[in-house]
């Protein structure tokens, strides 16, 4: 199968993770642009270079497309871009003509602009460092009250006008994509709800797109991987097993639906079927939270897993979502002690619950449907996930002074023992921040 994949940006989870996953099946021919064509934290993508890449693609079975990358230069630039609606519209019309010539199934997603509840402008416009939380409150209260909040009087009019103009432009561009789908150009189109709250302009826009026939999904970075899973193989009957079943109606951090709905939504969007344990091809263990989702790096505690986990005799995968952005150390101890067997189809604890689920299900489906299975590639993927999500995010990241090369060594030994491998990892921080580490073997 030939698959082309246009990522959101050049982060490891967006760029190297899909490569690692598709290597599990040697029969997948995977086409991805050179990494230097994609954007990063401060630089947008080389859009003209990406147009050339798209034009030169061989005939593919499927194209996985992050529309923000072409329209704005990436997910972060979609919030910062100063270009007009007309400029963006002209650009995506050129994209449309290229896609029409490819005669491939196209699985696309576009973001609904998020509203961060903080005064940090690392991924937003410059004024967010002073007015971000006020803009969030204005959005939240205006939606909740059903009329404009008086908070508008506190925010300088030129800032609020600029922000609302950017939102309107992006929303109108999303409506164009919806027309493409109705014309039959796109096999699947997802509008992503990134970092949601209960109320806000982003929630209103999602409902408006749904009213027009659009499909919206909580999450963002994992959606290209979920669409990759959708493009591959037959439906797999998947049975979610919650380790705290009485708490599956609780809502994860950065999301607006229960963890149960998040799980079933990810399964279905990945082209799989929710099934009972008895009928399932594969079991999805979900280490869900019991009071609230914790977050180690933010100092938000939660009750760690304290039960006894007994793995299935069927194929199984493990979504560790008790904490956002990092593993549950207590639960990982049980996984490591249980040993890695032929039924193990993957582990993930990457960032949000949606991130974890989408990436995990994608890898498990590729392995399950592989025509030419590559065990070494699967073990390499799992080594990276355990070293990133467990060793680094849940442990080493908390020590600002730790020299990562030496601090990770005890974890490397345990991961190699679990997987029966002898990997020698290296680490770097491609965006020059501690939020994401890149693990290479």
Number of domains as seen in the coordinates: 2
Average pLDDT: 96
CATH fold-type name of the largest domain: Rossmann fold
Task: Give the low-pLDDT segments.
Answer: none
Please describe the biggest sheet, giving its number of strands, its sense, and whether it closes into a barrel.
6 strands, parallel
Q: How many extended strands?
A: 13
Structural class: alpha/beta
Please identify, by name, the CATH architecture of the largest domain: 3-Layer(aba) Sandwich
Rg over CA atoms, rounded to whole Å, is 21 Å
Looking at this protein, list some descriptive labels:
single chain; 441 residues; alpha/beta; Rossmann fold; 2 domains; five-stranded parallel β-sheet; globular
């Amino acid at each position: 199968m030939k698959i082309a994949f246009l990522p959101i940006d050049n982060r490891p989870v967006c760029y190297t993770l899909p490569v690692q996953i598709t290597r599990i099946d040697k029969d997948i021919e995977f086409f991805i642009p050179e990494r230097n064509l994609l954007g990063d934290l401060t630089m947008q993508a080389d859009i003209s270079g990406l147009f050339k890449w798209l034009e030169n693609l061989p005939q593919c079975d499927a194209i996985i497309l992050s529309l923000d990358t072409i329209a704005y230069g990436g997910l972060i630039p979609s919030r910062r871009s100063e270009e007009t609606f007309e400029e963006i519209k002209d650009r995506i019309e050129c994209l449309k003509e290229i896609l029409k010539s490819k005669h491939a199934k196209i699985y696309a997603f576009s973001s609904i602009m998020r509203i961060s509840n903080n005064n940090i402008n690392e991924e937003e416009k410059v004024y967010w460092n002073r007015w971000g939380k006020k803009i969030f409150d204005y959005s939240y209260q205006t939606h909740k009250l059903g009329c404009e909040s008086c908070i508008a009087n506190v925010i300088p009019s030129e800032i609020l006008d600029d922000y609302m103009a950017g939102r309107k432009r992006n929303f109108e561009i999303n409506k164009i994509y919806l027309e493409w789908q109705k014309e039959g150009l796109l096999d699947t189109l997802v509008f992503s709800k990134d970092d949601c709250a209960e109320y806000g302009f982003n929630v209103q826009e999602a409902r408006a797109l749904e009213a027009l026939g659009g499909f919206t999904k909580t999450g963002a970075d994992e959606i290209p991987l979920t669409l990759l899973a959708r493009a591959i193989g037959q439906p797999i009957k998947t049975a979610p097993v919650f380790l705290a079943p009485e708490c599956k109606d609780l809502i994860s951090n950065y999301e607006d639906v229960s963890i149960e709905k998040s799980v079933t939504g990810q399964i279905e969007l990945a082209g799989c079927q929710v099934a009972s344990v008895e009928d399932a091809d594969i079991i999805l263990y979900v280490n869900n939270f019991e009071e609230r989702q914790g977050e180690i790096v933010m100092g938000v505690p939660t009750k760690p897993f304290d039960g006894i986990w007994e793995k299935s005799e069927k194929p199984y995968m493990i979504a560790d979502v008790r904490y956002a952005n990092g593993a549950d150390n207590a639960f990982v101890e049980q996984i490591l002690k249980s040993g890695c067997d032929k039924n193990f189809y993957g582990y993930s604890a990457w960032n949000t619950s949606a991130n974890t689920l989408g990436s995990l299900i994608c890898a498990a489906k590729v392995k399950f449907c592989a025509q030419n299975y590559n065990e070494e590639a699967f073990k390499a993927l799992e080594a990276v996930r355990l070293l990133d999500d467990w060793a680094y995010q849940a442990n080493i990241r908390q020590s600002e002074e730790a020299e990562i090369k030496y601090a990770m060594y005890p974890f490397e030994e345990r991961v190699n023992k679990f997987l029966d491998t002898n990997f020698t990892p290296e680490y770097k921080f491609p965006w020059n921040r501690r939020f994401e580490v890149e693990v290479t073997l």
